[in-house]
Amino acid sequence: MSFNEGIPRVWDVKPFEQLFAEPTRNGLTRPKRVRGDGIKMVNMGEIFAYDRIFKQDMDRVPVSEKEYDKYILKKGDLLFARQSLTLKGAGKCSIVMTDEEMTFESHLIRARLQKEIADPMFYYYLFKSKIGKELISLIVEQVAAAGIRGSDLVKLKVPVPVILEQRKISEVFSKIDDKIELNNAINKNLEEMAQALFKRWFVDFEFPNENGEPYKSSGGEFEESELGLIPKGWRVRPLIEILEVNPKRTLKKGVNAPYVEMKSITNYYARVTEQYNREFKSGTKFMNGDVLLARITPCLENGKTAYVDFLEENQVGWGSTEYIILRSHQGIPHLFAYFLARSDEFRLYAINNMTGTSGRQRVPEASVSSYPVAIPDTFELFRKFGNTVHPGFELMKKNDLETHSLNLIRDTLLPKLMSGEIRVDQA
């Protein structure tokens, strides 16, 4: 691909290798049996999960003194995926954003740039852009899996604006991504705090007593039940007495309605990551305030659960037949159903009650309905829980909407700034 047409005349075009501080290098091979201790290793999993590598959890591996200087990563290093099961994944680029001690695996290619002439962030964003992806596509080889070779990567001709302009361009996108990551971190903390509160109040029984003190730690009375000791006055009842299971919803066949795929539900976050309109044929139906619980293996074991809050008032959405829909009864906050379904105790119960052939096991609706729940003697505790966690979820929704807008802005600007169609002083 040539950049000689369509880019500013003041931009140079050079083989990528002319920007390197040292030759590219493939990483280390470390089988599972030696992993556990040592320094962090960036694997293919991290490359496809994270565009920017910070201090995420990852495998640790031993690295010898002889290997250390060659294979240690530095802040600003670019990592390219040598292989992928899909064409679009081959050559995927991530950037190291930390000075934390890390190495990288053999399926990755490291490129280390001369920072006085090549801003690593600029080239990271270049390879995220349409231009960069088209460049990578020129060197992808498809055999059993799609892949690239370092010897081809280094010969790619890339645009080289002056370093000051590179830095200005990358700064635009870095600020957007920093805000997106801040929003994601805030949302993660908000959900973790709400989950911890649910466990403290409804599992550990440290809810506030009449004096505002933790019930169990303050000597609150307990009595025996089928679940063991529970606060005096509480009772154990089947889940169906406090939650609806697969409540009836009306949606006519052929109507376009918001659709949620299984891949749009995560094992760590309440909100659906993506939904789109699709003609309804058959599937589960849901409304705002409902909870989507994946009932099939391995999605159930992985913890795929979501809280629906993206629909219009009284609008009905739909999704896979492999969801079980939960909804709190009147007087119980909708979010209680979500955190109950997210709890370790419920998850273990559901897994232990799966039926069916190996690889296609599901938890039956009847088993979910029969799950034993310790219920407070009054609904006041439910009300307090809802009032406490609801504002955090409203903030999560607001942050996600802002993140969506920021993603659109970044993705609109990226090809224009990377091609020089818009100069940085015009952006």
TrEMBL record:
It holds the Pfam family Methylase_S. Keywords: DNA-binding, Endonuclease, Hydrolase, Nuclease, Restriction system. The keyword Nuclease applies. The keyword Nuclease applies. Residues 64-192 form the Type I restriction modification DNA specificity domain. One of its GO terms (biological process) is DNA restriction-modification system. GO terms for molecular function: DNA binding; endonuclease activity. Belongs to the type-I restriction system S methylase family. This is Restriction endonuclease S subunit.
